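User: Predict the complex with magnesium ion.
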Amino acid sequence: MSQELHDSEEQFRLIVEAAPNGMLLVDERGLIVMVNGSALKQFGYEREELLGQSVEVLIPGSSRSDHRQHHAGFMQAPQARSMGGRRELFGLRKDGSEFAVEIGLTPIQTARGMGVVASIVDISERKRLEIQLRQAERLAELGTLASGMAHEIGTPMNVILGRAEYLLQRTADEGMKKGLATIVAQVERITKVMNQLLSFARRRTPERRAVDVGAIVEESLEMFQERIAQSRITVDKTIAASLPPVLADRDQLIQVLINLVMNSLHAMPEGGTLRLSLARENDYVCLKVADTGHGMTEETRLKVFDPFFTTKEFGKGTGLGLTVVKGIIEEHGGTIGLESAVEQGTTFTIRLPFGEAGAAGSPSSTGN
Ligand SMILES: Nc1ncnc2c1ncn2[C@@H]1O[C@H](COP(=O)(O)OP(=O)(O)O)[C@@H](O)[C@H]1O
Ligand SMILES: [Mg+2]
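Assistant: Here is the predicted structure with magnesium ion placed in the model:
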């Protein structure tokens, strides 16, 4: 090889190595002849592991046969183009995970024959932002819709409620009274759902006061008394005595508990145990809501906080409950986590800082 050719090859190698995109040179047989550092990082391999391997190790199983056809076609009529057309492409990492990619192909004549240079861009971050944006748009739409509905539905609902209550006072007929009481109760239910939607759509600024979280747990549980009594669910409550107060919005914390308890009850249609515990952990109050329900798969677990994610049938779930819960907890400077196992159950753990409210009213925790 002439010195000149050698120099230019060396230069080419350096440029490719420094490229921010992943780059591969694949020969006619589909074997990897060259790979740059960015590609190694993208796919999680060491160079020796890829050189001489079929490029198919980087392609998810489901797309391999497609790739084989395209590779053959490309080699017959080589010209620069982007790969995949309108299809979404994915790369396969060494650890088995996949990531969204965009790939440009350029034919190249090498000393050993025809080859193709693939330039690979990891677009998973872009995809994630696109999804986030779409969700934000949906939430904004929901906000507009909810405000409109609250007005359009709220006004007639108030009229219905007013009339029903008026008639309720005037009638002595027991049957009539029962019917009217049902109307009142159902209208109140609709109003409650509307308010929940509204509070989600336009999060009002929280009003923080020193609150007794233990009392809030008790109170929230009260609301489920009837439901729990009718089911085969046992409640097991452990609330530490004399916990300092937490600076928090009472209504929001109730909303958190309602959502968690509701989910647990849904997860135990055949009965089980609902465990609520509240304890102190240094500067935090730690609330656990645990159930012995159907649990979640790993896939579900990763998505439960996403807005609109639900595994419940249409009309049963909104997929907003845990989104709201997480929002509220984080606004309070707290954290939420969960553990779950299919057929075993689920435990949500929330930690809220006592903050100033706790510091003012709590005994010093040092030295004991
Ligand atoms: N305690 C639980 N046990 C099992 N799965 C749960 C539990 N809590 C939440 N999930 C899962 O998380 C999903 C999202 O919950 P959530 O945001 O409250 O929305 P929704 O209850 O309206 O479906 C549920 O559809 C369910 O699949
Ligand atoms: Mg829910």
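The CA atoms of residues 295 and 342 lie 4 Å apart.
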